[in-house]
Amino acid sequence: MTGVDVRPAGTVVVSGVSSDAHTWNLVYLQLLIEELGFEVVNLGPCVPDELLVDTCARVRPVMVVVSSVNGHGHVDGLRLIRALRTRVELDGVVAVIGGKLGIDDGDAEQNAAKLVAAGYDAVFADGAGVGDFRALVRSLRPELRPELRPDLRRELRPDLRPELEESA
Ligand code: B12
Questions:
Q1: Ligand 1 and 130: CB distance under 6 A
Q2: What's the rounded Cα separation, in Å, for the pair 110 and 122?
Q3: Which of 13, 71, 130, 135 could bridge to 103 as Cys pair (CB 3.0-4.6 Å)?
Q4: Is ligand 1 within 6 A of the CB of residue 64?
């Protein structure tokens, strides 16, 4: 094929939290993110905090996506983001968490607020769909970041433009 730029838009690290053995959530997220043009390093389930943080420091991803399905995300994810945010090499990396973060739906808002206060850029509650997540990942593509490519702004497809129009 000629004339098609197939270079990945950057690397995204996908990982389960340390206590979580579920894997299909990670496969799903990997496929979704790859479909949006990024390369994915999928660390799999039951990842110790240190392994995740060290891998990120080496890979320098544009985004870290943490998934919890067993309900321990509000504990494991909190400890993890505190460790990640202490690393200067990872300053500014976008970090998000989602899935089943607790075992009681009634705690969802409180858990999300704690996770954001500890350093996540966004928390995606289970059952809310992946529309917002997809929009966030897409917004990380270099050609969609006006501060990096102002010359390209006018050429973007209309369906990819709304958030940029708003921030102009
Ligand atoms: C298969 C399964 C297992 C398998 C996993 C095998 C494997 N290789 O993954 C096995 C048998 C190992 C297992 C074990 C356990 N499981 Co299980 N498991 C399931 C089951 C049936 C399906 C999960 C699945 O694969 N779904 C398919 C994937 C694609 O969807 P998903 O996991 O829901 O992920 C989606 C969303 O959550 C979201 N998402 C997830 N992460 C993120 C992150 C971001 C950023 C975003 C945007 C979205 C997002 O996107 C995904 C796609 O839509 C669910 C019940 C169910 N029907 O959902 C229970 C379930 C997840 N398990 C549960 C439990 C409790 C356990 C155990 C603790 C049971 C036990 N007592 O031993 C252990 C966990 C052990 C551990 N250390 O983690 C509970 C969790 C309860 C909770 N969180 O409130 C569930 C919900 C069953 C239930 N109703 O009680 N499990």
A1: yes
A2: 14
A3: 71
A4: no
